[in-house]
From TrEMBL:
Protein name: Type II secretion system protein GspF domain-containing protein
Keyword annotations: Cell membrane, Membrane, Transmembrane, Transmembrane helix
Domain of life of the native organism: Bacteria
GO cellular component, one term: plasma membrane
Family: Belongs to the GSP F family.
Transmembrane segments annotated in the record for this chain: 152-170, 202-221, 359-379
Species in which this protein is naturally found: Vibrio cholerae
Amino acid sequence: MESLIQLFCALFAPILNLIPGVIAERLHVFCLRHRMTRKEQVYFLQNYAKLISDGFKINEALTILKTEYLETLGKDCSEVKFCTEALRQMGDEGALSVSDAMSNWFFPVFTQVISVSTTSKNTSQALEDLLENFNRWEAVRKELLSILKTPVLLTVGSLFATTMISMYGLKLVGGDKFEKNLTDLSAFFHAYGVWAEQNIKLVLLVMLFLTLVYFYALFNVNSDFRRVLDSNIPGFGLYQAFQAANFYTIMAILVSPSGGNLKLKEALEEFENNNDLTSDYLATHIAEMFRRAEIDGLSNLEQLNTGLLPLKMKIRLGIAGKTKGGLTMVTTFQSISQNLAEDYKDQIKHRMRNLSQSAMFFSVVLVFFSVLAMLDVAFSRLDSTML
């Protein structure tokens, strides 16, 4: 999949750069950020984190990485091009930070990783914590995709087989005049085949439109209605949990004595003021936290419960807000971020199993009756030839 995306980006990125408009601009940035695959970006950051943890400065680390990638993969690899551009921007153009140079090369989540690590007293530990959080969710994503693959393939395969049987299979086994001897079952599938043949282009366009609407809503709808979507639409809950894990992982670093050593409100202000740290989705929740702070004062952790967390994590946050000592902000945030992936995975796997069973039942029944209709037409033709 990533190879196809990179091929698309290589072909259309130069063209998109010439087209005015917000959508073309976003697509161009999307293409720029896919010059390296997800694995390549993670591997690069892991090497970068290792050098930083060994005491190298940012410029020194980038220079070493550039040299190693140049000797190993050659001057045309994306990592070498990034290091060259980043060193130039940070040196000649005076970019504020390495995260600025990364913005058009890495996915936003990785830009967050670098941005947060630079605010921490222990940069290498911050990088390790954030990459560990990403790797947890990458494992969840892969496992859920492997589970989801079965019901999706079954459903798509059964619909395709049924459509082909209805459009062409009945006529193939029944001959040119098969409509004269149709039973109720075969008549139903024949009617569906006629409808599908007449409307197949419209159906495909509607499916494409719904897919675009789904992904647009996933990343751009942030109103109060978003909570309904998070609770009821597949995939939205995963995005919500991933955003929550990012938020609490970063908050743990910002308030940690060995990290940013900020107070709770100061950490939220850091989120609000730093575009690298937040997304439009998180911004709505942070705005709600500040609204509560204006009314009651930001005095306890329960005020961070804005609907961003699943039920088990809400309980943990509520208990932390009521205890005197015991669970500190840092340990609470770390506990939430570390357990969110596992908690969400258990919850969604149960739903996926039910979905998979339903898809299997639907697929088997659909194909069974469509094949039965085809056999019905075939036997009707056989009977008519014997009379």
